[in-house]
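note to self — DONT lose this again. spent like an hour looking for the file last time. sequence + predicted structure for the chain T wanted, 97 res
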Amino acid sequence: MATYIILMKFTDQGIKAIRNAPLRIEAAVKGLEAMGGKVTGFYATMGEYDYVAIGEAPNDTVGMTFLLGLGLAGNVRTTTLKAFTREEFAEIVKKLP
């Protein structure tokens, strides 16, 4: 599965409805699971980003569909990084000319 690090910031709508955030987070986790992915870590953070999540999806199409759905809901804006394990990175480096 592909791994993604998702950095999230509240929108005005998201912060106004912060009391509902735990329910929204749970719904998002279940939504990704229904698409064949999973959330392996989730953190509320202080600083530039309000949440940081680590998730897995079967492929980039599923990952993008999930992220578009998060944006469509209007509570957070995301910045997403596709991540590679040390082992995956080592395999990529081996293929260099």
